[in-house]
Specification:
Elements lengths: L9 E2 L4 E2 L14 E2 L4 E4 L2 E5 L7 E3 L10 H4 L10 E3 L1 H12 L1
Antiparallel strand pairs: 1-2, 3-4, 4-5, 6-7
Length: 99
């Protein structure tokens, strides 16, 4: 949660407070967060890393997952990777589904 905020406490003379919603304590937009798998956006780690290369994030899947992945020669870690598609690829996929 705090990947995209500069943790600092402010002491008013009476009590310390953490200015969590003060934008001056947000890390810059597009700062890598969540172990370099996402980007900061207005104090939150919720922007896709794919936007750095002008693409959209997608979910990696394996057809017919009932068959064990080992038999298909696919490493399970493959499904944990972040997939990025460009807009041309997305449009091509949509066209194929329509036709």
């Amino acid at each position: 949660m705090f990947d995209c905020r500069i943790l600092i406490s402010v002491f008013s003379g009476i009590q310390a407070a953490c200015p969590l919603n003060d934008t001056q304590f947000f890390k810059p937009i597009d700062t890598p967060c969540n172990l370099n798998t996402a980007l900061c956006d207005r104090g939150e780690c919720n922007k896709s890393i794919c936007t750095l290369i002008g693409k959209s994030e997608c979910t990696l899947t394996v057809p017919n997952v009932a068959e064990p992945l080992r038999q298909k020669g696919i490493d399970r870690e493959y499904l944990c990777h972040i997939g990025c598609l460009d807009s041309k690829s997305i449009m091509n996929l949509l066209q194929r589904k329509i036709n």
